[in-house]
Amino acid sequence: MSMRTVVIASRTGLHARPAALFVKAASEQGVPVRIRVGEGKAVPAASMLAVLSLGAGHGTEVTLEADGPGADDALDALAALLARDLDAEETSDA
Amino acid sequence: MPDTLRGIGVSPGLAAGPVARMSPPPSLPERRAVADPEREVAVAAGALRAAESRLRERAAAATGAARDVLDAQAMIAADPTLLDGVTARVKDGADAPHALRETFDEHRRTLEGLGGYLAERAADLDDIAHRAIAAALGVPMPGVPSPGHPFVLVADDLAPADTATLDPRSVLALVTERGGPTSHTAILARSLGLPAVVGCAGALDVADGETVTVDGTTGQVCAGVTEDEAARVRERAEAELARLAGGKGPGRTADGHPVDLMLNIGSAADLAGVDLTDVAGVGLFRTEFLFLDRHDAPDLEEQVAAYTEAFALFERGTIVVRTLDAGADKPLPFLGLPDEPNPALGVRGLRVARDRPEILATQLEAIAIAAERTAADVWVMAPMVSTRAEAGEFAARARDHGLATAGVMIEVPAAALRAARFLDVVDFLSIGTNDLSQYTLAADRQAGGLADLLDPWQPALLDLIGRCAAAGKASGRSVGVCGEAAADPLLAPVLAGLGITKLSMSPRALPAVRASLAEHTLADCERLAARALETDDAAEARAAVLTTT
Fold first, then answer.
1. Interface contact B75-A24, CB threshold 8 A
2. Rounded average pLDDT over B54-62
3. How many Å apart are CA B164 and CA B127, to the nearest integer?
4. Where in the sequence is the domain holding B362, given as residue range(s)?
5. May I ask which residue range the UniProt record assigns to the signal sequence (chain A) (predicted)?
6. What is the tens place of the pLDDT at every residue in B78-127?
7. Are residue B329 and residue B185 in the same domain, yes or no?
8. Partner of B74 for a Cys bridge, out of A68, A75, B55, B458, CB 3.0 to 4.6 A?
């Protein structure tokens, strides 16, 4: 199993817009990705309800997990996303 | 011949346009036996997709924070765990609407169990559930309609969730069948500057698309008007707006007695696009936004940056900063406060500093540093103060940090009654009428059915305001009002007559308050205040002032 640990950089934490961006990206990966806080239960990263229920705030350390081919690429992409302050980035009007 | 409906005018102004009615939330029919589970799952899945796509449409039409909230809601509707839950329940024999209801309820309980911010988000799930259930039943989805052109919104009553994404550019006026002068609808309409009529029986009988005229002062709503009549009302509305916009200069009565007009803001962003000419400053800078949705308190540097940004926008005026107003009623995870059986009477506002003095110390230091970096005249005040000792201690701490002007909010009757003695130890008072009415009339602000008791026109509340203002006059210190009451143009001369020297409100409310003050001399204001105090309830007080004006 591949894992990445990353600190949530978004100012409001993994809520609202940052959560929506993360869940969307997670559901677009070719492999199922799970996310957990500390040693808590890992939940599907493609589930908005599950991700919100983590209650991960700014500065919270989360761990991403996935198995199989493509797992490492998926985790790298998602970890990089969480390490950005998504609140500071303008909403694209596209 | 147009039909005339009558309600209570709660937000002045004229409007004319086609009606769009709000659909009520769907009611669940009796359970029915499911013959074809696969088809039932398909119905539920289609309903969730319909809810998602409607939320996406709404998000595309919204901007800023509202858009983010709606996007997040759309993603919840699309959440595969919802469909899993629905599928499992259909297999157990539930029909699509009940399977949806039970699945949403389960997730709602989970979020509520997590407490704090997430518990508040639990209510958002209801909105998605109502949409999906309506789609499964084949009835219109509830919520604010979006007919694609400007409209007069007609509803039974409006809840905060309904209006979070209300776009003041597409809504011309609000008309509700229920509600009173202090209902959510009234407060919202005043903050958006929209004409509004509440308690208007028969409003929901007007068909969608029919043109109506709305007069938010008299409470008159006319249905079935011709296009000519509508055009005339629009012309009058524009002339009235031009008259208010033409009102220039600082706040003062007809005979030149000054009443400072100030703004309530939550962050620097609230001042974007606002004409600050003739505005005396910010009467209430709420600092909660920095603290929401996070697990740790913002550090000194982050706070300094945010305060500096706001102060820099108002370098020629006064900015009154309220220190963190949180507690069991507005929970913040990092405060680690226990649940309280009666949070409105619990550890909130300044009381949080009893256990966590370092949060207040950091905040005062950040405000002092930001004040030093800008030319703004920065005042600081504490919320939820009950005793003179609390007031004095807060002022001493503020001065220790180099903040010269320190005051307190008056929200607790105990503080209002002792205002004169408070003014020995603080530099100014600012009356938060929303909380002061809740505590004076012993009526929960969250309890919709008690709106009449929470009315800022309650004579007991006016008595307390008058007592504070008199103490201010005697000591030569400033006593302002920064609650909902300050935004009511009819109440403004009464407050001035009681001796209030500062009124702080949302930017949209300011022109009407300025115009209202300018129509009365100080002697008129004092006479109106005396009339209001001679009455025995809010409706009587309002009527007495209306007939005297």
1. yes
2. 79
3. 12
4. 247-548
5. none
6. 999 999 999 999 999 999 999 999 999 999 888 887 766 676 677 678 88
7. no
8. B55
Number of structural domains in chain B: 3
pLDDT, tens digit, for every residue of B461-472? 999 999 999 999
Residue B401 is among the residues annotated as catalytic for this protein:
no
Topology, domain A2-85: Histidine-containing Protein; Chain: A; (3.30.1340)
Shared domain check, B443 and B334: yes
Contact (CB<8Å) B79/A58: no
Distance between CA atoms of residues B395 and B401, nearest Å: 10
For B320-340, b where at least 16 C-beta lie within 10 A, e where not — what string?
bbbbbbbbbbbbbbbbebeee
B251-269 residues labelled b (16+ CB within 10 A) or e (exposed): bbbeeebebbbbbbbebbe
Report whether A13 contacts A51 (CB < 8 A): no
Q: pLDDT tens across B531-547, in order?
A: 999 999 988 998 899 88
Q: Is position B342 annotated in a ligand binding site?
A: no
More confident position, B338 or B390:
B390
3-class secondary-structure state, position B505: strand
Is the per-residue pLDDT at A93 higher than 50?
A: no
Same domain, yes or no, for B17 and B41?
A: no
Nearest CA in chain A to B77: A48
Provide the ipTM. Answer: 0.84
Distance of CA B306 to the CA centre of its chain: 23
